[in-house]
Amino acid sequence: MDSTKWEQEEARIYQPGTPVQLKQEGGKIYYVEEYDPMFVPPVWLENYPKPCYPEQLRVLSNLFCVLPQRSLQVA
After folding, report:
1. Which of 28, 41, 43, 45: CA 20 to 30 A from 10?
2. E strand map for 1-75
């Protein structure tokens, strides 16, 4: 696979809004904010202070919907 196809495939996997977990942390779900192959590391996450390499991330299936958690108020 040439580098252009590889970058395109990686960009497709790490589209903005894709849910991921950091392999070292597990549990907490982050969302991809930006993927830019010109940056090293190329993946920026929402609410995470530094960019990540793809091998640090576990992509969660985007075939299901992750609903935001809300606290319910009892009247």
Report:
1. 28
2. 19-22, 30-35, 43-45, 57-59
